[in-house]
Design a protein that fits this description.
Layout: E1 2-4, H1 9-20, E2 25-27, E3 34-38, H2 42-52, E4 61-63, H3 70-73, H4 79-88, E5 93-98, H5 105-108, E6 113-117, H6 122-133, E7 139-140, H7 155-162, E8 171-173, E9 185-188, E10 195-198, H8 204-211, E11 217-218, E12 239-242, E13 251-253, E14 265-268, H9 273-289, E15 294-297, H10 305-318
Helix pairs in contact: 1-6, 9-10
The structure holds threonylcarbamoyladenylate and magnesium ion.
Residues 29, 31-32, 34, 58-61, 94, 96, 108, 111, 113-115, 117, 119, 141-143, 183-184, 186, 224-227 line the site of threonylcarbamoyladenylate.
Length: 320
């Protein structure tokens, strides 16, 4: 595995070639780093599952370079799904659509729907466009972490998570820290109205506004398989608890206006909800690097992105 720190057009071209040869390329997106493979190459897809130690019935998101690629992967796409794609792509939203024949069981986990996303990070977009120029059709990319663990928001975190499992010719593209810091909003668009399966930076309020459909709901217990529905997810090695630290030496994450109790190790003090999302995973990782046993977090209040942060914290806390 090699990390490319200076993502010049030439290096991105080489990375696209590596994908075309069936290698894995971890790349930055605005949400978290993804572990990419050619979405039409079954053995490359199999490598993703083994590098991540991910159960094979867990579907992968296909990353494409523009809204024009939708019809390659999806059929019978509803008008409101197209509206969402046009409004928020490139950006942090994944649409679950009825799959075309191209979307194999290896991608969808045998489900009849496929997840599609156009990321906005320029390195990601250039990589996807370059890959398509070489004849590629899409890149599957789950978050570049071992299954159940915290998503990486930097190339260093990808190296720490997957470096020892990736192949010699696999690549990691380094474009610095991710701007958003938590995974994309996932919206099931296979029904009459959108259903938010995983909240994210594109909020339920924004989705309602664009589609004009009121019944956008966030359900945690749907039958479709989404990361968040697994017991232990977004979990660091440390135990995560919600609330104030009770002893010296506990880690602590909260908005800057919440003071640390004495003896707590402050891992993050974000000044806004956006900053909270951006630093959350990095703070959980820092807690592990410091060898902390327990990390306490105070959940941010309110709707929008705060809901997505609470979702991740609740799941991290229920993990162990
Ligand atoms: O922000 C993101 O979405 C990142 C970046 C790299 O794009 N990717 C990401 O992928 O978070 P992953 O695999 O870690 O989480 C995607 C979730 C999975 O839990 C999967 O179950 C769900 O999306 N998913 C993918 N395809 C699906 C489908 N056809 N139906 C239901 N859920 C699906
Ligand atoms: Mg993930």
């Amino acid at each position: 595995m090699q990390t490319i720190s200076n993502c010049t057009p030439g290096e991105i071209q080489k990375a696209a070639q590596a994908l075309a040869y069936g290698k894995l390329v971890a790349f930055p997106t605005e949400t978290v780093y993804g572990l990419g493979a050619d979405a039409t190459n079954q053995s490359a897809i199999a490598k993703i599952y083994s590098v991540k130690a991910r159960p094979v019935n867990h579907p992968l998101i296909v990353h494409i370079s523009s809204v024009n690629q939708i019809e390659k992967w999806a059929i019978d796409t509803s008008d409101y799904a197209i509206d969402l794609a046009r409004c928020f792509w490139p950006g942090p939203i994944t649409l679950i659509l009825k799959r075309s024949k191209l979307a194999s069981d290896a991608i969808t986990g045998g489900q009849d729907a496929v997840g599609l996303r156009v990321p906005s990070n320029p390195v990601a977009l250039n990589l996807l466009a370059e890959f398509e120029r070489l004849g590629g059709i899409g890149v599957v990319a789950p978050s570049a972490n071992r299954f159940g663990s915290v998503s990486p928001t930097s190339a260093k975190a990808v190296e720490a998570e997957l470096g020892s499992f990736m192949g010699k010719e696999d690549l990691i593209l380094d474009d610095g820290p991710c701007l958003i810091g938590i995974e994309s909003t996932i919206v099931d668009c296979t029904k009459g109205a959108p259903i938010v399966l995983r909240p994210g930076a594109v909020t339920t309020e924004m989705i309602e506004l664009v589609t004009g459909l009121k019944n956008t709901i966030y359900l945690d217990e749907l039958e479709v398989r989404v990361s968040g529905n697994m017991a232990s997810h977004y979990s660091p090695k440390a135990v995560v608890e919600l609330g104030m630290p009770t002893q010296r030496g506990h880690g602590f994450i909260a908005l800057a206006d919440v003071p640390s109790p004495s003896g707590a190790l402050r891992l993050a003090a974000p000044k806004s909800i956006e900053e909270y999302a951006r630093v959350l995973y990095q703070a959980l990782r820092l807690g592990d690097e410091l060898g902390l046993e327990i990390i306490y977090a105070i959940e941010p209040k309110g709707a929008g992105l705060a809901l997505a942060i609470r979702d991740r914290l609740t799941k991290a806390a229920s993990g162990k």
